[in-house]
Specification:
29% helix; 607 residues; 19 helices; five-stranded antiparallel sheet
Length: 607
Amino acid sequence: MNLKSFKFRILKENSLQPVRSWFCLLFILGLFLPACILPAGASVISGDSSGDTCVSDEELASSILSYMEYSYLGKEGPHLSAEELSLAAHNFRHIPYGRVVIPVSSEKDFITPNIWYKMGVPTGSLIYEGLVTRNRDGNYDSWLAESWSSSEDAKVWTFRLKEAKWQDGETVNSEDVKFTHDYLKDKKLKLAFVLNSVERVECPDAQTAVFYLENPDPTFPDRLSHSPGIAIFPKHIWENVENPASYDEYASGNTHFIGSGPFRYKAAERGQYFLLEANEAYHGDCPYVKEVALKLIPDASSRLFALQSGEIDVLPEITPVEAEKLKGKDNIKVYNIPDATGYEIAFNCEQFPANDPLFRQALSHAVNRENAANMLGNTEPTETVFLLPNLAHDFVNPDCVGKYDYDLEKARSLFKASDNFSVDSDGKIRYKNGDQIRLKIPLGGKSHLNRADEKLLNVIKMDWEEKLGFDVELEAVPEDIYLEQIGESPIFIDGMPGTMHDDLEDLNNFYRSPAGSNYYHYDSPEYNRLMEELKNTADRDKRKEIGYRMQAVLAEDVPTIPVCSTGTLVAYRTDRFTGWENVLPLQAGILDKKVFLNIKPVSFQAS
């Protein structure tokens, strides 16, 4: 073994100790290597001279050598401090370091004390995992499942599990997968609807779980992974809980939040904080961050101040106004997670005048998407019939993109073609009897957050009133009667998560099943037939072709007018952790396993 390889072996095989205990040996060995350390602070991560955010063995050895030459030989030159050297060693050995602090506005944003009732567990939890997870590329990433496959008819799905441990040391096995399915249904829990199509789960061996479905489902991994998704829970803990509705994992004596994810429960205080620590026995790559603290800060201005003062490290879901306030602030950067929410003008296709397809087509040409998007800020116009191209990718029918451009003359010609409307000499639209068109649009629901619906409609109704002659009234309605109101209104505005626009399966929103209506009261026999065909087709290319035909039907019938999609703005301190922007979560916010496996501390002050 030569001297250089011996030195690398020492670096790799020694457990992390106080860095000074290595110095004498590494000083002698380091003399045979050129120094490659940059001046302190010049590299994003201490000891990383290449900019790849990973400290290599050569980079660490050179950092130690530079420190030794300065500390013991009095040689002037760029070098790390002892604390920075310790951080570099943690990075090199991939040993978790530091605490990242994240504010939440409500205690409900902590890890829920009863995880069975948390919607979207796999996407939003660092403790629990599902079998697979959806990514922004339109594919699936492995979580507890090492591999998965389906039968030709997509009615039998087989998942092969990884070698993994629960955070109390017990082994994860297929019985846990079966138990999760059975428990959800036996206890009639809310999330059981995700697994409605599952007839049973069998376990041919400890590492294999087989789902038998009542009907073909080529998108079954999509159901398991998001919107809302299903986590897998440890049978040996929950089989002894008779009533999960009353079980409180915060309570003394209960087992705290045992999952299989990269972070585990450490401590919590109601109304104050929730603290997680790295699960160093995790079956995947270990986090670079040692602790994640969720800190309750209800007031928005206090959260903004906390970021600037360094009390917190990242501030998710800020408004464009808040982003502007942070512009130019030292050590703070803002980035965008695109397509977090899609906004649309939706029709109740059973209510006059929205029951006239020409009315819906005409209004599609009377929506200035650019102006509406500019009003919200951090927003992109949506020119498809429903799916978002950045999320659904090639499932979007290109022939349906931009079909309804902003053109009031086209709108007027469509009104003229209808038996229900007329156009006067001033270009104003009237009913055939000459009456003015009056629309009362309820405001509420998901789209009313930060009054987004009101802002969008105030831009759009300017054209509708001034150029088309409508009388448009916007009315904010209480949340408890909002659904009732949109059932009686011909037009309403809706805001959907981006995950409701990312796959052909989401076209199910317009399907009228034999059991009843859909959100838009839309009913097209041709569309319903295509949806049934899609549900029974496993081949991707065939599904894509069917999906294109379905989007062509929607483009003709226009049950909804997609207007724009808005992103989520996130601000973070650049002097504490790096890597926030490298992995974009599928859903809004940052509390995502893939994000927290990617971020790394850049300063010893992050501890």
